[in-house]
Amino acid sequence: MSGMRTAAAVGLASLPAMGPRRLDSLLEVWEPEEAWRRITGGDRVVGQVLDGRLGKEPAEVLSRWTTAARVLDPVEALEAHRRSGIEVLVRGEPGYPHLLLDDPEPPVALFVRGDLEVLDTRRVAIVGTRRCTRSGRLTAREIAADLAAGGVAVVSGLALGIDGAAHEGALSVDGGAAPVGVVGTGLDRVYPKRNAALWERVAVEGLLVSEVPMGSGPSPWRFPARNRIIAALSEVILVVESHTTGGALHTVEEALARDREVLIVPGSVRSPASEGTNALLHAGVGPARDAADVLTALGLAAPVVGAGEQPNSAARPEGRAASPGRGHRPGGAVDPRDQAVLDLVGGEPVNLDRLAESSGLSLGELAVSLVRLESAGCVARSGGFVERLVR
What we know:
By secondary structure, this protein is an alpha/beta fold. The protein is elongated, with a radius of gyration of 24 Å. The protein is built from 16 helices and twelve strands.
C-alpha cells in the first residue's frame, strides 16, 4: 500500500544519523516496509547491505537504529507531518517532483510546505556566503527581485547572508514569481532562528523543501547534502560572493556535476568575500552583471530594469519599493572633518584597521568619524569593513 510505503520511508528517514546515502543504499535492496521490518527486528543483514557506510562503529549505529525503530510508529510520524501542514513525497510515488527523477542522487523522501507548482516555472538559484558585504547583500536582493518580476522563481537555502537577501528580494515583488527555499533541517526546526519570519513567508507564498523529517536539527553534514537539491531544482546557479571555502562553492560543484550553468557576480579583488567567486571567474566560469545576464542564460530575451535603477517612480512596478543600493543618493552634508576619511574609503570595501592606519586616526577617532559619515548616508559598515555609498 502506498500509505504504508510512505510511512515506512518517514520512519527510516527519522532514524538517528540516517543520511541520504545510507537511506538510498537500503532502498536499493529492499522496499521501505521491508527495510523497516528488518531494522526493527535487529537483522544483521542490514549491516552487510550498508558495508562501509556506517562509520567506525557500525554495530553501534545499527543498535541505535533498532532501539529507535522499536519505539517509533511510522504511521503516527507520517500523520504528525500532515497535521503540521507538511506533505511527504516519496520517490516512486505520485506527486514526487519530476525534476528529481533523473537526478544522480534523488532524495528518497521530500518534506514540503507550500505550492509544488512553483517548480513548473523557470528557476534560478542564488547562493553565496553568510559573511557577505553590504554590497553583496544589496546585489543579491536586487537581482532576485528583478528575476521574480520577470517570472523566474528564486531558489536558495534560507541561510543568513546572500541566501536570505535573495529570498527577501524575491518576496519584495508584488505578483512576482514565488521563491523556493531548500533547507537542511526539519521544517519545524527553523535554522537560523533569525530567519523565522522569512521561512514562514517562503512557505506561505512559495515552496519550502527539506529531505529530513520533523525534529531534525542543524547537523553540519546535512547542509552539503541540501546543496545538491538546490542545484538539482535549478536551471542556472548564480553565486554572489563566496570565500575560498564554503557551501556556495559546494553548490557550484553539485551544479557542474549536473550540467547546470553557473554564473558569477564579479567582486572586488580587495574583498575576502569575493575571493572564491573571483577564483571561479579566473577558472573560466561566466560572469553575470545583472538579472538581464541571468535571463539571457535561461534563454529569456526580456531584460528587466534593475530594482535600484528605475529612472523615476512611474517606471517602477506597482508595489515595488526603490532599492537603497545602486542609484541611492544619501542625504546630509559631509562634515569637513570627515572628508579625508571618506576619500580613503574610495570605491571598494576597506578594513577598519587599514583605514585607521592610512588615516592616521586612532580607532576611537575613526569610529566617531564613521558615525558621522553613516548619519550623512555616505558609508555603511558590515563585518569589520567600510563601504562607500553612491552619492
